[in-house]
Amino acid sequence: MPAETVLLLPGTASDEVFVRSVFTEPLSQVGAVLSAPRVRTLGERLTALENAPASHPIVVGGVSLGAHVAARWAVANPDRCAGLVLALPAWTGAPDEAPAALAAKVSAQIVRTQGVTTALAGTTGWLRDELTRAWHGYGDQLVPHLEEAAESLAPTLEELKSLDVPTGIVGCTDDPVHPIAVARAWAEAIPRAVLVTTTLDAYPHALGRAVQAWQQAR
């Protein structure tokens, strides 16, 4: 039997390189294969899901914005989704004043007026390395993408309740940009969800714990 393929999408202004670094090994440990398409816009994220093989239901998911897009796609395509692997959902429904949305707006403004280097001045360590690579990879698409991400919809709690598939969710207990309350609300709403938690100190590879949560939900 061929290995199961799991299609995962990156978060806001992140990229497929980060997704592969986090999820390739955890998926291989459960006999699954990662598909991490190169996407930049919201539209490209959705197109990647729409273009996935339709011969059988597939497992999808992603990080932050990628989790939002994948979950909304699953709501709209229940016959095509076999499961969900979700890391760090950032809000539910409309973004309103969600920290991740506000951060994206602020970043867009700084990049537009002062450049990428200034926008990244406050970051350090692995996060700075990841964002430096990814943001430069977006080129002229970076600011428009940050702005569209900040205004994008996540699924509502009522929509999440319709997702009757095995779902693994990882949330962070001390990440102010991705509040743990959001991950818990998603896990409570999705009927077959398992939530695991991590901390900022364990980032980024601990996000792969969503894979183990997905396996538990199965």
From TrEMBL:
Parts forming coiled coils: none
Entry-linked Gene3D superfamilies: alpha/beta hydrolase (3.40.50.1820)
Keyword Nucleus carried by entry: no
UniProt keyword Ubl conjugation present: no
Entry's Gene Ontology molecular function annotations: aminopeptidase activity
Cross-referenced InterPro entries: AB_hydrolase_fold, Hydrolase_4
SUPFAM superfamilies per UniProt: alpha/beta-Hydrolases
Keywords from the UniProt entry: Aminopeptidase, Hydrolase, Protease
Positions of the Serine aminopeptidase S33 domain: 50-205
Pfam families registered for this protein in UniProt: Hydrolase_4
Protein name, entry field: Serine aminopeptidase, S33
